[in-house]
């Protein structure tokens, strides 16, 4: 049975209009994006197949073009649309984060970092540079690969902070393992960066670890 044959209140588009996007399941939201199904499968069925293949929306968005297009009913056009939606979401969150005090918009900061870092297959270390009013000046990915105290250079972080004339920073990196708990290396790295940045009067306001669906805050844990 096609979606058009469902009761009106259960159809994804009508349900979204009546109850809001938050009321829809991942599969229903994805079905609206897909618009149509394939022979023998509705858009919702196809969406469930996609989620079953990748296990989550995060992994689906992180899939390569080849992986995505390998699924029956998908193709380059859908892959391009999906990447465009993802990038628009990143930019919208980036704009929201830049419009005011970053410490007064913790949800926007977390959402931005999660959208940017989760699902990445290698570790990425980034810094959000802030002015004296904690407004965002820039957000940069500075290091990639296995992150340790020796592979993230405090000197380079200090140089970028001075370049942006930053008064404070928010640090962030991801754990591809999916475990957000900070390692001893994460703690040592945070301490080293705090000490280096303090020499040029730049405060470290927080250090986030993005892992899976989680986002751990050093500040909230009392580790800064």
Describe this protein with a few key phrases:
alpha+beta; 5-stranded mixed β-sheet; 5 strands
**Overall 3D shape:** elongated
Task: Work out the helix count.
Answer: 9
Spatial arrangement of strands, main beta sheet = 2-1-3-4-5
Q: In this structure, how is the largest beta sheet organized?
A: 5 strands, mixed
The mean pLDDT is 82
Low-confidence stretches: none
Q: Give the distance, in angstroms, between the N- and C-terminal Cα atoms.
A: 56 Å
SSE pattern, N- to C-terminal: HHHHHHHEEHEHEE
Radius of gyration, in angstroms, nearest whole number:
21 Å
Kindly state the number of beta strands: 5
Approximate helicity band: 40-55%
- Our estimate of the beta-strand percent is 15-25%
By helix and strand content, what is the structural category?
Answer: alpha+beta
Give an account of the 3D structure.
The protein has 224 residues and is α+β, with helices and mostly antiparallel strands. It is built from nine helices and five strands. Strands 2-1-3-4-5 form a five-stranded mixed beta sheet, with helices on both faces. A hairpin with a 2-residue loop joins β4 (203-211) and β5 (214-217). The chain is elongated and about 65 Å long. The mean pLDDT is 82.
